[in-house]
Amino acid sequence: MIQIRDLVMQLSGGGHTLTVLDGISLEIPDKQTVAIVGPSGSGKSTLLGLIAGLDRPTAGSIQIDGIEITDMPEAELARFRREKIGYVFQSFHLIPTLTAVENVAVPLELSGVADAVERAEALLDAVGLGDRRGHYPVQLSGGEQQRVAVARAFACRPPILLADEPTGNLDSVNGRHVMELLLALHRDAGTTLILVTHEPQLASRMGRIISLRDGRMASDDVSRGDPMSQEQLR
Ligand code: ADP
Ligand code: MG
Q: InterPro entries, per this entry (predicted)?
């Protein structure tokens, strides 16, 4: 469960202060699928980054499973993030000097997993890239790179997966492939899935749609069906 209370994010520079998030409060239960939508600059990436503990808010509280993360010391936060949260970036953010399998193995090795490489290979198999293990990111298409990034984000089986416009740099076929992969992780592992997207078609696959405008919540559509039952209806 993620509990966000009165979250404020202000950035100052050049003598004035920009309020990026202006009092966000929301609760996201375990296993929910959430789309965060809204115009460019409305604060979507900032909100996702704060939930991931990648940044610190100006004010307010974020609790994950009852643990406050906004004032957690950096080393403890890094460990907490590794256990609880997987993060997928729009632009993949793979390490260019590591092969596909080495990229996926990084979080496993950081967590002290003994058979990190074997586990990474199995994860790559699961995202359909078993034959690309030894390829470097530059040798992979955008869609393939994003599948590697999803495998890496999910390597430690975090209960929460965050994705910031994960299909934003992909064509529609590859975008759909990545989206199916994210939904499969939710379905198979019960992962909470929170994704930022511009695409109404992707947002409609999620169980809840939160819309931001000027750093505030403009709407919160929780009345949507679970995507699993929606799929069964098709
Ligand atoms: P979104 O993801 O919805 O497009 P962001 O969360 O990236 O919006 O940004 C919200 C606002 O904060 C924008 O006006 C953006 O220009 C500003 N912003 C975000 N990060 C920074 C930063 N590091 N420095 C200055 N302004 C920033
Ligand atoms: Mg953004």
A: AAA+_ATPase, ABC_transporter-like_ATP-bd, ABC_transporter-like_CS, ABC_transpr_LolD-like, MacB-like_ATP-bd, P-loop_NTPase
